[in-house]
Amino acid sequence: MGYKLTYFQIHGRAEPIRLLLLDSGIDFEDYMVSYPDFASIKPTLPFRQCPAFYDGDLTIVQSNTILRYLARKHSLYGNNDLEALKIDMFNDGVEDLRVAYTNMIYRNYDGKDDFVNKSAPPQLELLESLMKANNGGADDGFAAGKQISFTDFNFYNLLDVFLILSPTLLDKVPALKAYHQRMSARPKIAARQATEAYKQLKVNGNGKQ
């Protein structure tokens, strides 16, 4: 049995997982469940929520757990404990910013301008500084070093949805803007984002983006 990813018909928490699998050339079934049909799946899931990832008889939930599981299996978690630490630390910073974005989208969309102009910029600056430090002060490389890791797919996706929210949001963090462009140019990511199916997907479940 192969891999199967179950999530709703949106980007949401599953898109970084999809990007990791696609960019790595890993075959999987991308099962997009409707909200009504999710009712039959929900009782089978440990936390009653998606995304859910199936590796044969193994069921995995929690998006970052899924990313880490795949990273360990497919050499996307650094080459030693120090590199893994840098990857984890960066990813936790990305998670903090994603949670803030999600709270704004679902609970305080009227506060969008404050998020774009006040909340997000200093956090993006911190991530930019950390990315540079992880690359010896250089502006190139990946989020946590010279090799791509699972956190890159999480971070890239977050930057991508930020640019949907505000096309100029990365203008004051040029290293992140260039990083986003490099990730967008990766052939399998570019191919996915060129499809009509991808373009039709909403970012979030409530339609706000």
Please describe the topology of this protein.
Layout: E1 3-7, H1 15-23, E2 28-32, H2 35-41, E3 52-55, E4 58-61, H3 63-73, H4 81-107, H5 112-134, H6 150-165, H7 174-184, H8 187-193, H9 196-200
Parallel strand pairs: 1-2
Antiparallel strand pairs: 1-3, 3-4
Using only CA atoms, what is the Rg?
A: 17 Å
Strands of the biggest beta sheet: in what spatial order?
2-1-3-4
Please mark out the parts with pLDDT under 50 across 5 or more consecutive residues, or reply none.
none
Q: Average pLDDT across residues? A: 96
User: Could you tell me the number of beta strands?
Assistant: 4
Sheet having the most strands: 4 strands, mixed
Number of helices: 9
Helix content: 55-70%
Order of helices and strands: EHEHEEHHHHHHH
From the N-terminal CA to the C-terminal CA, the straight-line distance is 36 Å
Quaternary structure state of the chains depicted: single chain
Structural class assignment: alpha+beta
Shape: globular
Strand content: 5-15%
